[in-house]
Automatic annotation (TrEMBL):
The active site is at residue 46. It comes from Flavobacterium psychrolimnae. This is PhzF family phenazine biosynthesis protein. Belongs to the PhzF family. GO terms for molecular function: isomerase activity. The lineage of its organism: Bacteria, Pseudomonadati, Bacteroidota, Flavobacteriia, Flavobacteriales.
Length: 287
């Protein structure tokens, strides 16, 4: 059995930046176990598998896998897969599509070089103390921006949003893998456990996402799902409207730009993230 696959760099202003993604088409005959094995083999942060395709109504269904597990929702796979669908698979190249993932249908649109997704309504979970982090990092209480809480937020995948005072703290961050994992296991409300650190200095937003996967401390180059959580967080705690670029991946030499465009009105969050995708390769995968 042979599958066509595409490789794109997502949230990337140029090739070989942003977050890598492998997109496999015609994957409806694969089992979840096979998808997991392929994702582990290619070993990108995520790989996606197109299981249904309907050109008539511009829709598709996908499953998303990290090398370790399946995801219910993830931003960079949705943005990248949508770009492949709209520019490489759908012959009529629609500007709007609907992508089905385990949490539901995600509306996606393309405007120029940017592909945008609209996220689900956020849920704000537990808040935490800055002192907690001294047990598994080099951080002191003075490193945190006390204008914001530290809080777990989800729009489908949950992240603990951690505000820093400046980019220097972000750059110098050191985490103890074992102690961090123990804290995540003890405190996170969902099975998806990760930390999303950010600083907002004037109009510059910078971030880092770190989690434990395959017993390794992993840093992600660009995290769309975390960005939807951060956008919701900033709409709630900073300003009810936002248009800004979130810069991630700089400290692992994969600079990424995630575009924010959102508003909070009458307790309803309109959360939109966008990004550019760079086409890298197409091939055939033997199963």
């Amino acid at each position: 059995m042979s599958l066509s696959f595409y490789i794109v760099d997502v949230f990337a202003e140029k090739k070989y930046a942003g977050n890598q993604l492998a997109v496999f088409s015609g994957a409806d005959a694969l089992t979840g176990k096979q998808m997991q094995e392929i994702a582990r083999e290619i070993n990108f942060a995520e790989s996606t598998f197109i299981t249904k395709l309907n050109a008539g109504n511009n829709s598709a269904a996908i499953r998303i896998f990290t090398p370790e597990h399946e995801m219910k929702f993830a931003g960079h796979p949705i943005i990248g897969t949508s770009w492949v669908l709209m520019n490489k698979i759908f012959k009529h190249q629609p500007e709007k599509i609907t992508l089905s993932v385990p949490i539901g249908e995600i509306p996606v649109r393309q405007a120029g070089d940017l592909v945008w997704l609209q996220a689900a309504q956020p849920e704000f979970l537990d808040t935490f103390l800055a002192e907690d982090f001294s047990n598994f990092s080099n951080l002191s209480s003075a490193d945190f921006d006390d204008a914001f809480p530290i809080q777990e937020v989800t729009t489908g995948s949950a992240f603990v949003i951690v505000p820093f005072k400046n980019k220097k703290v972000l750059e110098n961050l050191i985490l103890d893998k074992t102690k961090m994992n123990e804290w995540l296991q003890a405190n996170c409300k969902t099975s998806h456990r990760a930390l999303y650190f950010f600083c907002l200095e004037d109009t510059k937003l910078s971030s880092r996402m770190l989690c434990i996967e395959n017993n390794q401390l992993i840093e992600d180059a660009a995290t769309g799902s975390a960005s939807t959580c951060l956008q919701a967080f900033l709409l709630k705690y900073n300003a009810p409207k936002i248009q800004i670029i979130n810069h991630q991946g700089e400290f692992i030499n994969r600079p990424s730009q995630i575009y924010f465009d959102g508003k909070l009105e009458n307790n309803h969050f309109d959360i939109n993230i966008g990004g550019k995708s760079q086409f890298i390769a197409k091939g055939e995968w033997e199963v």
